[in-house]
Each structure stands twice: as structure tokens, then as C-alpha cells.
User: Fold these one by one.
Assistant:
Number 1:
Amino acid sequence: MQATPGTVIAEVKEEPVLRVENLRQWYRLGTGFFGRRDLVRAVEDVSFDIEPGEVLGLVGESGSGKSTLGRAVLRMTDPTEGRILFEGRDTTRLSRRELRPLRPRMQLIFQDPFSSLNPRMTVRQIVSAPLVIQRPDLDGGARNTRVGEALDLVGLSSQYADRYPHEFSGGQRQRIGIARAFITEPTFLVADEPVSALDVSIQAQIVNLLINIRKKLNLTVLFISHDLAVVGHLCDRVAVMYLGRIVEIAETRALFRRPRHPYTQALFSAVPVPDPTLRRERIILKGDMPSPINPPSGCAFRTRCRYALPACAEAVPVLRKVDEGHLARCIRDDLDLIQEPQL
């Protein structure tokens, strides 16, 4: 339709591939003292969107709830509360049978390339397993063709298809796991620390492989990692988790240039500076992360925060807008947390 003069054409915004609203993932422990059953609040009131073609990084200490969140958005576990909308459809209300048609479009790359591959299966059997389940209409020849294409996508020769996992290096095994994830042609991918178990030189190869595949297939990715350097290289936006909550989320450059939460500042202070003539203040957090069974009142980070005030214990801070596209869960607007290396 041709617009007449003076007509304002509204820009149609694409729906997010993934929308998470007020997600909670709690687990009940066995009976404790006096018959009480404790709750582990692994994920607590998490909300975020991932736009089509976007890579969202998820960072935080071990035990912060990153992997639990990644598995929850894929409906590998049943969330306690909240909604997960995948391509506009609320998956939290779907049964296992109703979820099955969606499974090929949302896949997972596991962290450990050793334990995630069945040692008794050949590469062909491992990579084709999703097709056996999701595409029973394909015959053996068609599945073999798809296996060859998937291996070629990750830089492995199809002549390796009849070998077993123990015949490959760690980096090659991770490529096999990536091929298995991509063989169903997903639109959304959760990469759960896919390079943390690999040597540094191999990490760079896998990261570059993921970048190339993402561009080729226009993938939407939730990238979980401890490595802020990798996250800064790969991701469009970054979310920071602490004790089950997102405490900050922003575009990668904005977050790296000026974090607005003290926990994010502490994480960045641990990143090595490659130039020996520069130095950065190292922030040492006191104590361990509190237990998700009995989290502190108010701001969960206040027990380790050097900027904490008495008011931080009164109520859980809201994840609020502190700049354009930048949200943080902190009441201290007076802090200047820029962490540039100094001469």
C-alpha cells in the first residue's frame, strides 16, 4: 500500500524470540529439623527478552543460577512460577506432547564435551539422534546426508562419522556436540559455558565457530559463561546474575564501559589487563555467596558489598532503568563505578 502525503507509518517491531516473565525456579529439599522442608530459591523473579538474531550473555559466579535458568527457558524443568514465551507461545502451559513440535527449534550446547557424548555410540548415531526422534519420516540415507551437512558446518569431515568419541580431542568433541544441536535447524540456542572445559587456544576456535554459525543461520542465543572476555567478544547484551536474580542488564559496550551495580564492578575487576603498564583496582569480595535456602533480607549482595547502607537490608531493590537500555538492581545512584585501567 502506498502512503499518502502526511501519513505516519508506524514501525512494526518484531516479537522477541524468547520472553521470560517473573520466572521462579524453586526446589524442595528433604525434611530437616522439626519436619521443616527447606526451599532452594535457584532462580528468583527473573524477566528479560531476547530479540531475533540477538546474543544475550549471562554471567555470574558459580551457584548464581545461570545454568538453572538456561534449562528452565528450554522447559527441561517445570518452572515454579512465571511465564516463558517462545516465539509468542507460552511454553509453561504446554504438556510434554504439546512441547514436542517446538523442541527442534530450541536446542542446548552442553558444557562438558566428555560426559555429554555417549561413549558407546558413533558420531553418526550421536548427531542423528535428534532426527530419529523428531523426524521419523526421514530414511537412513536422508539422515546420513543431514549428518554430513552438520559435521561440515562445524568443520569436521564426514569420514569421522563412524568413529567413537574417545578417538577425538576435547575441541573436536565439542564440535560434535554443536553439530548435534544444529542438526534440527533451531532458531534459538542455549550455550551453557560451551568453552569452559577447553584449552584457551581451542576456546578461540569454538567461539569463532559459534560466531560464524550464528551469522549464517541468524540464530538467537542465550550464551552462559564465566569468561567476560568471551562474552564481550560474542554478545550483543549482557545480563549479570547474583543469587538467582538478574542484578544488571545492558548492551555489552555500555556495561563494560560503565557498570551500574557493585557486583558487576567486582566481576570486571577480576579480568586480567594484557598491558603490564596498566593496573586496575582488584576488588576482593568478602566471604562466600549466601545460601539460596536462606538469602539475606533486602539486597542479596549487601553482605559482600563495600557500598552497602542500612537501607539496603530493608527491601529487595527493583530492577529499574538507570540509562537508555540499561537496568540495574541497586539503590545507590550516587556511585561512580567506572573501571578503566590506570597508568
Number 2:
Amino acid sequence: MAADASMSKKIVTMPTKRSNPAARKPRADAQRNRERILEVAKEAFTRHGANTSLDDVAKQARVGPGTLYRHFPTREALLEAVYRTEVEKLAAAEQKFAATMSPVEALRAWMMLFIDYIAAKQIIAPAFNALVGSHHPKFVEASYAQVHQAVRALVKRAIQSGDIRADLDAVDLLRALVGVSSLSNGSDWKQSAVRLVDILIAGSRPNRA
């Protein structure tokens, strides 16, 4: 009888173990759907701003409207997610660049990525402001903190290596890049910003006299 009971337990538990991989698959699919929606939404907000059709976003992302709304129940939620994603990529790049590049090369690569972030912010901010007015949600303030922390870490590392002057203020680099983007009305502002990165890096080198 004891042997029969043991066999019964095995029969009951074995299908549960086999079902685990199948249970994980929908979660992986859901994550891929979410990432695809965010990528499509970013491009859509570039073209159409606050008037972006969420149904069109779903179609371009090859998901049903119901799937989109399960992930992002409102237009504001989708905008916020796109914004957060861009900031998270930028913040995460700091450690990646620091681990694979020299200090000054890591700083330059991150500044180039920051230019892309500015472009995304210029795309998203007008659409977001059109929906929520002049109110700045907490997640926007938190994003600034993430960005500042990342660039300060990179500048500190470059100063410690002797590649950058000790009196360099990391935030000044951000202000310079944001400034060139806000002052330029043309579509070539990104090219100007890329040139500015090299100028800033050269000007931040210590005097070797």
C-alpha cells in the first residue's frame, strides 16, 4: 500500500513539472510584445505626437488592441513607459561602457547616447505635455536623477584616470548638449551635437604643459 501511495504521488506531480516550461512561454511572449509596442510607439510619437493612434501602434506592433491596452491602459501610460525605457537604457549604458571602454572613451560613448536620449525626449515631451499640461510627474524628476548619477560616475572615473580635468562639472556637459539641441531649429541639430561632444572632450583634457 505504501508503494502504491508513493507511485500515486509521482503520477500527480510529474505532469506539473512538465507544464512549467509551457507556463513560462506566455510571459516571454508578453515581454516581447511589450518591447515591440514601446519601439513602435516611440516611432509613432515621433511622427504624430499626441495625436498618435493607439490602434495604429497595435497594428504596427503586430498585436491586438486588447494586448496593447493590457500593457498600457491609457495613452499617458504608454508615453510614460516610452520615456522610462529611454532613461533606463541611458542609465544602464554607464556601467556597460565603464566595463568595456577606457574612462574617456566610455564618457564619449555615453554622451553620444545622451544625444539620442535628447531626441527621444524632444519627441515625447510635447506629446506628453499636450496630454497632462505643465505638470511634471515624479517619474520625470526621477529620470533626471538617474541621468545625473550616470554622467557623474563616468566623469569621476575619467578624472581619476587623469584623462579629464579635475575641475570638470559633469552637469555642465549635459547643459551644453541640451543647449545645442534647444537652440537649433534645423533637422541637423544632432550632427551639431555630435561635433560638440568631441569639442567638449577635447576641452576637458588636462593641461599637459
Number 3:
Amino acid sequence: MILSVPSILAPASAFLLSLLLALYLTPIFRDAARRFGIVDAPDGRLKTQKDPVPYLGGVAVFAAVLFPLSLFLQFSDKVSGLLLACAIIVLLGLIDDIGRLSPRVKLLVQVAAVFLMMKSGIRIRIEAFPPLLCVALTFLWMIVMTNGFNLIDVMDGLAAGVATVSALALAVVFALQGNRMGLILCLSLVGALIGFLRYNRPPAQIYLGDTGSLLIGFLLGGLAIEGDYTARNPYGWFTALAVFSVPLFEIVFLSWLRFRRGASIFSGSRDHFSLRLRRWKLTRGQTVTASCGAAAIAAVAGLLGMGLAPLPSLFAYGSIGLLFLVIALWLKTIDMGL
């Protein structure tokens, strides 16, 4: 049953309901995780919190997103396929949070989830490219996005905060193109993340875990494919990169540093940009605020670029890339004692 709500009120209603559900469900899953021992224990190296922190925050976020969608959206093939693929990602993350899976197994399951999503009709379509190349780009984009948010989830409130900014920017894209499905999905996720952040801000009472970080990366990656960025500007697709500049920056930055040291990209280390900011002089709260601010600036520049003429838009997009290049060169100079 789909509630008969005026189209202008449905997105706002979905946001409010997911917010309230997240506020209600998150402490329930927090207490359940403690009871069953599903916690992130400090190890003195990468996990430096004083006490074990419960996982399962991602399950609360997923549940808070699902219920509003069932009320305000008709489950088309694309919606059903995307959510079913997300459910696979949630199950993958949950197993990894409870036990531990190898990177190879996690990658294999992510590929299967992307294939399922593509079967529902969600894939990159570029007229100038052959279909097989578009399929390959879809797999690459989804794997990078899924693991990009997973990589930045190393500090209280960071992944959820950045994801909130990205989801809001993507909601603007859907609002401009009149895509009701995308708008409701994005605002449901925003509400769920804001409700979750009530318990995840420093010092965190609960973590997203791989369940949540993989989920938000996958869901946002799939939604981004459905955005129409080139209606006014053929280079508008750069907006998708700008909206997700922080997780994309993280994966490129980490890959670069670990490659230079001859280390595996899958190995844990203190190379993360957020840990380098902490090593410099910022507190956890300041690091999260700065990261969300950088995400917001890049997203706004990207959204403005969609409406500009092609040549001026390239300057806007290029300025974002230059900014992050300068930040990368500066962060590299911070001694992490590696």
C-alpha cells in the first residue's frame, strides 16, 4: 500500500519518518550489539578508542531507510533491484562485523550485488561508449564507491557526516530533474544518517561497521548512476565526481601512498587523511567538520558546474581537483611515524 501524499510532501515525510526511526532504532541495535558481543575492540594501533564500541549501526540505518520507502514509493524494477542488492551488501557487512572475511570474498560478493543491480536496469549509459565499456565502468564505479565510504569510516561521525552531505547534494540533482524516486531515496537516507549521527558523533556510542559503510557507499553509488547531469552541459557528469570527492580522494590518496611504500591497498595503516589531520593538530570533531565542509564546497561547485557553459564548468571542476591535489601534497608531509 502506497500512502496518498501530495508529491511535494512525500520527500519531506520520508525524511522525517526515517529520522525518527533512526533515533528510535539506533540505541536498540546498540544495546543488542553489546549483548551479543558484536563490538569493535581497541587494539592500540588503528583502533584507539578507550572501550569497545558496538557495531550494527548500519542495520539501524538500513531499517530506517526501508520503511519510509515502502510507504511513499512504488517498488519498480529499479527500486526493488537496488534495495535487494543493498540487502546483499548489508548481509556481507554484517558477517564481516561479526567475524572477518577476506578482501577477495568481500569483492566477489560486491561484484554479485552490482550484477543484480544492473539486471534491474541501473547502469551507466554513455552514448559515445560501447555497451561493454559502460558495463565495465558501472562495475568500477560501484566497487570504488562502496569501498570509498568504507575507507573513510575510521573516525566517529566521519563516514555518516560526509555521506549526509553527498546524499543532500544528490537530492538536489534529483529535485532539479524531477526524479521522485531518487529524491525520496536520498532524503530517506539523509534522515536515517542524521538520526544515527545523534549516537555516532564523538565520542561514538555505536559504529556503522562494515554493514553501514558498505551500504551507504553502494546505495549512493547506485543512486548517482540514475542522476541526469548533462541536460545543460555535456561535462556535467563531473558533478558526480565532485559530489563524492571526499571518499574518492581517500581511495586515490591511500592507493598512492601505499603503492609508494610497496604495501597492499587492502592492508590497514594510518595513512588515512583524517588520521593525518588528527596527527597535525585537529580534534576529532574539527576533523569531521573540516571533511564535511570540504565535501560541501566540492558538491556546491559541482552542482553549479552542471548549469554553466562547458568551458567555464571545466574551470569549476578543475578547481576542485586542484584543491584536493594541494591537500594531498600537504597531507603527505605530515609524519605519521610509519
